[in-house]
Specification:
The protein is mainly alpha-helical. It has one domain: Hypothetical protein af1432, CATH 1.10.3210. It has helices spanning 2-11, 21-37, 57-78, 87-96, 101-104, 126-134, 139-147, 159-178, 184-188; strands at 47-49, 52-56, 105-107, 113-115. It has a two-stranded antiparallel sheet with strand order 1-2. Strands 3-4 form a two-stranded antiparallel ribbon. The chain is globular and about 45 Å long. The model has no long low-confidence stretch (mean pLDDT 92).
């Protein structure tokens, strides 16, 4: 499992700058534990979404963290809002938000993915939150992981959770749109292209 840790640290150098070293280790541990239970062999091979070939889960996660950090920058530099943002919590939540896709997506044998059977049983975000809670992460992070999807029935309870929600929606929905798919937020509010 050292490969998973090395891959994560290469893609997310923010893990090495987190003040809470235990939280950083717990983020890596969640990825390791979830990968062990998945049908995937390498975190870099996991597809972003069924029907969207090319973008990877790790690439999407990197983009979400970049978007989230840009939102914080805009709050502070553009809007001059010196609001307290817990950087460790934000980084951990962003890196973990879609780790459950290792379990709810299965390789299709052609470089893409299909929904696994458990994707029909559990809401997206469930496994991410479950494994984070099992690692002893604070409720604020568990909430971020549950609430990050447009299909969740709960709202983010922290500013970091709101930032994650919009950072994720921005990247995921723009990617889906560029591949001819209806964005999740539009589906959630009933604005679906009837031609699909």
């Amino acid at each position: 499992m050292e490969k998973v840790e090395n891959d994560l640290r290469a893609v997310f150098p923010e893990l090495d700058t987190m003040q809470d070293r235990n939280l950083a280790a717990a983020v890596v541990s969640v990825w390791q534990r979830v990968l062990e239970k998945s049908d995937w062999q390498d975190i870099r091979e996991v597809s972003f979404s069924p029907g969207v070939t090319g973008p990877t889960l790790v690439g999407h996660t990197r983009a979400v963290l970049d978007h989230a950090l840009a939102i914080v920058h805009s709050l502070r530099q553009v809007h001059k809002r010196d609001v307290p943002v817990d950087g460790d919590r934000l980084v951990a939540g962003c890196i973990l938000h879609d780790v459950d896709k290792l379990l709810i997506l299965a390789p299709d044998g052609q470089g893409g993915c299909v929904l696994a059977e458990n994707a029909r049983q559990y809401q997206h975000g469930f496994y991410s939150a479950y494994y984070a809670e099992q690692e002893g992460m604070p409720p604020e992070i568990v909430n971020m992981l549950q609430a990050h999807t447009s299909y969740s029935r709960i709202m983010p309870s922290t500013l970091e959770g709101v930032i994650l929600y919009y950072a994720d929606m921005a990247d995921a929905d723009v990617l889906k749109y560029t591949y001819g798919k209806t964005p999740s937020v539009l589906k959630a509010i009933g604005k679906v292209d009837r031609s699909q």
